[in-house]
Amino acid sequence: MSAAARRLHVVLGAGPAGTTLAAELVRRGHAVRLVSRSVPENAAEGVECRAADVSTAEGALAAVEGADVVYHCVNVAYHLQVEVMPRVQEAVLAAVATTGARLVVLDTLYPYGRTHGEVMTEDSPWQATSRKGVMRARLDEAYLAAHRAGRARVVLGRAADFVGPGVLNSTLGGTVFPPALTGGEVLGLGDIDLPHSYTAIQDVARGLATLGEDPSGDGRVWHLPTAPARTTREIHAMIEERVGRPLERVILAEPRPFGPFDETFMDEYAEMFYQHTEPQIVDSSAFARTFGIRPTPLETTLDTTLDWYRALLAGTRN
Question: In this protein, which residues make up the domain named NAD-dependent epimerase/dehydratase (predicted)?
Fold first, then answer.
């Protein structure tokens, strides 16, 4: 194995994106460290696990020690994002500026704000008015400014809502697949006849790992590989076909608590509910043209996700 292949890649954040990315990087032959506030569990074999608080300068610097590439996949409780995420950015950006590591940031669609159904490309205007959208846009502007100034080498990868094995807290996650398999109530949000993009968690990992390996993409935003948008009703029909039963749907026309989405979460999510009252369509063709990576078909993602949830419900998966 070449020396280049053994460069240390450090993944910050041990949620579904971080753990899937760490496994993908190991598969590609890299030395990998996975960092979260407590020592990560259930990491892939071969991953070094470390605890650190990357919202502090000391914690971030300790986390990225020795890294050639750092991946920022940190997330926090939804109601704390506006307060905490800027602190994480400041600490992580300072750490990579000090060490010289490249920084790959997992980003959201929030900076675009309301699109009124227009297809989102990397050239779409940033016109967010929500608290979290404005916050994310400011963070992204700071990342790109740091790159332009030569302070750090940075690239951003934006994803739509996640779907896939290990993804629980998504609108296509724990409120959909378990009840689909057991006959419970499946949640749908807003207008389920609008097209809505979802990014497979494995494509998040493949996309971020590619950006980490190829510095030619630095200094800009990329849309990570995302399958063509389908309506929620179409996706439900695809799930029905796979589980062999009609879904018992509960449609929330406006945000209110449901299952794991408690009042605290839904109160904070209300400003983002426009994502379910207008089409959310992501175009990731620039990534495919540049890096040759196309999104996983949604059919395949649904198959692997249902298999993962079946194992989870059977108690055969941690």
Answer: 11-216
> How far are the Cα atoms of 108, 197, 228 from residue 176, in angstroms, in the given order?
22, 16, 20
Torsion of CA 203, 209, 215, 217, to 10 degrees: 10
- Asked if residue 103 and residue 28 are part of one domain, the reply reads yes
CATH assignment of the domain containing 259: 3.90.25
The stretch 38-55 carries a mean pLDDT of 94
Q: What is the pTM of this model?
A: 0.96
What is the phi/psi pair of residue 95, to 5°?
A: -65, -45
Q: In whole angstroms, what is the distance from residue 283 CA to residue 120 CA? A: 6
In the chain the beta strands, taken as DSSP E runs, fall at 8-12, 31-36, 47-51, 69-72, 102-107, 154-158, 161-163, 185-189, 195-196, 198-200, 221-223, 230-231, 248-252
Element (H, E) at 244: none
